Amino acid sequence: MIPISEQGKKKSPISRYNLVIKQYNDLINRQETITLQKSHNDFLYKKLYIFHTNYLPILILCYFAPYLSLITLICNIYFIIIHEFALNTYRTNQKKIENPLKHMIYEPQLCNRLNSSYLYYEIHKSNLPMFKFDKNTEDKILRRNEGFEKEKLRFMVYNNEFIAGYYLISEYRVKGFLHLVFNAVLLIGMHALVYSPILCLSFISPVDSLSKCWSAPRNFSNII
Question: Could you list the residue range(s) of the whole structural domain that residue 106 is in?
Answer without folding.
Answer: 2-223
